[in-house]
Amino acid sequence: MVTKLGMIGLSPGNGHPFSFSAIVNGYNKEKMEQSGWDVIYHYLNAQDVADFGILDAKVTHCWTQNEELTKRLADACKIDHAVKKFEDMISEVDGVIIARDDYASHYPIAKLFLEKGITVFIDKPLTLNLEELLYFIPFLKSGKLMSTSSFRFSNEVLMAKKNIHFEQLNFFRGTIVNDWEKYGVHLIEGFSTLTSFEPTLVNYQPGLFDSYLIYLKNQDVVQINCLGDTKPLFLMEIFNKNQYTRFEVKGNFSMFKRMLWHFVHSIKTKTPVIEDRVTIDIMKVLIAGNISKSEKRQVTLDEIGL
Question: What is the dihedral of CA 23, 24, 28, 30, to 10 degrees?
Fold first, then answer.
């Protein structure tokens, strides 16, 4: 039985609706080349035809904020129904993917589907609003909601988890393009899989670029450096007494596909992919980082509540 998915939204500079839909459905090479997403076209074109498809899922419906873009998405990614209102999907799909990274849009869209019992995937970050986070918690616990960065599923992070000798005390450093709210979550998600991720404190460090120190209960420290508007960079480094390891996360196709596989599997099994506490703590870290920067002080996660 086909698992029907709806693809919702598009954010400036973020082509995830095209990437995600193509990975599930395959794609029309000519239409994708004309879509305006050259990077996506080239990495899709580098894959073997056997790499496409996830379980029995199909993206059957799509909507973006622009009717012309919606049609372009549908044509490029073999989506049967380009709808004029995302509400039109409610009785037609088993799950929806909110592929927008502007977190303020997530709650009002997701709420409509969650309250109809439809499983929802929300692009990172889930929300930086405490009231919205509180609303989402029961759905995270039940497996009706999944929200994550694909970095936790990347080849590079999975290889590090397998091969690196982690010690009692570790220092993790990540360096990213863009800012804390938009891309900080990528490296926090990745590092959260490499240690016992129980954050206690966040401290913003001003300088030539924004830097944030995240202190963990096990005394590990995670540093996230946000370089702003520069060339794409997703660098992860791991330091301990006996090892130094660094790598860049680059394999978009494979990490997107694993993430989507887990989402489809969660629809079928009605079980959460990621422990709800981890997703909640990552959002609390992002919120604490914003407070630390604006108030120029260190912020404990206990202050955030929940």
Answer: -20
d(CA 225, CA 212): 7
Distance CA 24, CA 59 (A): 7
Rounded distance between C-alpha atoms, residue 207 and residue 210, angstroms: 6
Are the beta carbons of 2 and 58 closer than 8 angstroms? yes
**Does 156 share its domain with 146?**
no
Domain extent for 10: 3-150+254-273
CATH number at residue 61: 3.40.50.720
Residues 287 and 181 in one domain: yes
Q: Which residues contact 207 (CB under 8 A, 6 or more apart)?
A: none
Distance in angstroms (rounded) separating the CA atoms of residues 171 and 50: 39
> Are 123 and 167 contained in the same domain?
no
Cα–Cα–Cα angle for 262, 157, 9, rounded to 5 degrees: 45
- Kindly list the averaged pLDDT for each block of 10 residues, start to end, along the chain of length 306: 94 92 98 94 96 97 96 98 96 97 95 98 96 98 97 96 86 95 94 96 95 97 93 93 92 96 97 96 98 98 91
What is the rounded distance in angstroms from the CA atom of residue 259 to the CA atom of residue 251?
13
Name which of 1, 60, 64 is nearest 36 in CA terms.
64
Residues 158 and 168 in one domain: yes
- Hey, how many other C-beta atoms are within 10 angstroms of the C-beta on 105? 18
